[in-house]
Amino acid sequence: MKKYHGAFIKNEREIGCLREADRMVANILDAVGDIVRPGLKTREINELALDMCSDYKVKPAFLGYNGFPFAVCTSVNEVVVHGFPSETELKEGDIVSVDMGVEFQGFVGDAARTYPVGTVSDEARELMRVTEESLYVGIDQARVGNDVYSIGAAIQAYVEKRGFGVVRKFVGHGVGSRMHEKPEVPNFKPAVTGLTLQSGMVIAIEPMVTQGSYEVEILDDGWTAVTADGLLAAHFEHSIAITPHGPRILSISDRGLPERFASYA
Ligand code: MG
After folding, report:
1. pLDDT at residue 119, rounded to an integer
2. Which domain, by its residues, includes 71?
3. Looking at residue 197, what is its pLDDT?
4. Residue 47's CB: how many other CB atoms inside 10 A?
5. How far, in Å, is the centroid of ligand 1 from the Cα of 215?
6. Helix (H, G, I), strand (E, B), or coil: what is residue 63?
7. CA 116 to ligand 1 centroid distance, Å
8. What would the pLDDT profile of 108-159 be if each residue is shown by its tens digit?
9. Residue 79 domain-assigned (yes or no)
10. pLDDT reported for residue 70
């Protein structure tokens, strides 16, 4: 595979495989949205994802990745990312972020969404809205010739203007035959310049946005990342191919993008 400063340049066939992997991930995330309700155990989200992976005959990409013990991350309320599915039941008013990856013909799809559980507070709804919108604001910058850091600069400006925080500890990434490839795609603006985006790069953009401070802590299980101040966090992620015609979102389900983002399809 061709490389540009350490970032793989994918050909059309490879992007086709990534698109298929991401389509499956997005379909799984749609199905998760259909079952999220008060009383659901986060373990049941993991089981749904495993069942759909076996129907699709694909491998869940997170299971065993650096020792991660589940097929999905389920991150409730103050959990930012990497939460473990468990027997804990979702409650009315919770928000739950689900991050999911599959490997199809050697290529990894990766996407995430945050869902409301029943009726949530206005603050929680606003946090989710701004996080999802910031993802598309970032996607808008994913263009040939742009500095990869312009993505995070746009996300950060959008989020902070609305009074929320952007997590620094975790970032987006190149994605291809491995889940995490170069370049890093921060959701904030680093002080230096980054890689210039080239046609054929595929990146996962994934703003993690907090209600309060952007500082996070890792729990004793070595994975679960929570906000240091205990306030809510949300997480949305798409995998994007950089093309001469602009950003191409790969993680679109068979139902399509949400109505208000349909112009990005
Ligand atoms: Mg990712």
Report:
1. 98
2. 8-246
3. 97
4. 13
5. 19
6. coil
7. 21
8. 999 999 999 999 999 999 999 999 999 999 999 999 999 999 999 999 999 9
9. yes
10. 98
CA of 204 relative to ligand 1 center, distance in Å: 6
Residues 51-65 have pLDDT tens digits of 999 999 999 999 999
258 within some domain: no
pLDDT at 49 over 90: yes
The torsion defined by the Cα of 219, 222, 156 and 152, in degrees rounded to 10, comes to: 180
Interval between CA 111 and ligand 1 midpoint (Å): 6
**pLDDT value of residue 238:** 98
Q: Has this prediction a pTM greater than 0.70?
A: yes
User: How many angstroms does the Cα of residue 109 sit away from the middle of ligand 1?
Assistant: 9
Count how many domains the chain has: 1
Does 260 map to a domain? no
Cα 90 to ligand 1 centre (Å)? 24
Is residue 189 in a domain? yes
CA 23 – ligand 1 centroid, Å: 15
Gap from CA of 174 to ligand 1 centroid (Å):
9
Using the mean position of ligand 1's atoms as its centre, give its distance from the Cα of residue 260 in Å.
23
Answer yes or no: is pLDDT of 1 > 80.
no
Give the domain CATH number at 36: 3.90.230.10
Residue 146: closest CA among 197, 102, 184: 197
Burial class (CB in 10 A: 0-12, 13-18, 19+), 40: buried
Task: Give me ligand 1 centre to Cα 178, in Å.
Answer: 11
Q: Return all residues near 147 (Cβ < 8 A) that are at least 6 apart.
A: 193, 194, 195, 196, 197
Residue 201 confidence (pLDDT) above 90: yes
Residue 242 CA to ligand 1 center (angstroms) comes to 16
